[in-house]
Amino acid sequence: MLCFRVKNGKLKAASRALPKLRAGWALVRVRVAGICNTDVEILRGYHGFKGTPGHEFVGEVAKVRGVSSAAKKKWLGRRVCGEINVSCYAYGFKPVCDFCHRGLKTHCARRTVLGIINHDGAFAEYLALPLENLHVVPKSLTDEQAVFVEPLAAACQILDQVNVEKFRSAAVLGDGKLAQLIARVLRTVIPRVVMYGKHEKKLALARRAGIQTKRVRGDASDLKRIKENSRLVVEATGSPNGLALAQHVTEPRGTLVLKSTFHGAAPVETWPIVVREITLVGSRCGPFAKAIALLRSGRLDLTPLVTSAFPLLDAPTAIAFAQKRGVMKVLLHA
Phi/psi at 72 (nearest 5 deg)? Predict the structure, then answer.
């Protein structure tokens, strides 16, 4: 199969054998993959990953192994998206780790992560995942909608971690792909959501979705220029400088949700967290069922977030394009 692997900070085409399947696993033919900021950070050295990146996908089950005839019939040919954390249970480890025993499979001590940690991902013709990770895509959703399920689930995770209904307003720092999804998800529950971003075209996309916006410069001057505070702040800038601004705009005893992942360290002072008694919440992967339900409801229109699509063969060109100023979601089509 054709796949693209990380080599010296770039994507390089390679020809590899199809992934070998364990019992209870599926071979998935990738139909569409999305390029995420994490994929860009991987090229910069995030997690030291050297395999095939890509964790946002919709595909079709081509083969399953070690299951009953009824299970094969259920899965073969079905369109699916997939959760990216593969737990020790799926690898057959016994006993399972303490996190899996507690039901926290996304924090499994032995986990691999699709396209991020020791598990080849979706920038390929095929990938392999356990059946327990797969979710059937409803017929009412297009591939271009379904490819958003994984990042949308990450946005929905905030709803499971924070009692957002007690807030009348929220601030989202960042105007990129994940920030746009987070703002839209919060807007389904919270009356007033304000997005702080550097790019006017991206902020305009948020305003079309009923989200208020404020333009920032993205540097230290914002700490003096921005006077307003919020009880609920989500930091999704994808920048090392975002955390300082997030602390600045979180009011005393407020809640700050951290979403950014990037290669390297963030320069930050911790005293504002202590003095303001800010509650910090780290937030990562989330509930696929909730994300799929939101897409099916029609309450979110994500089509304006797609800037362009490329064939898989042009993956290096696509990921270079994805890093250009003003570009939102870039897709790879099989």
Answer: -60, -45
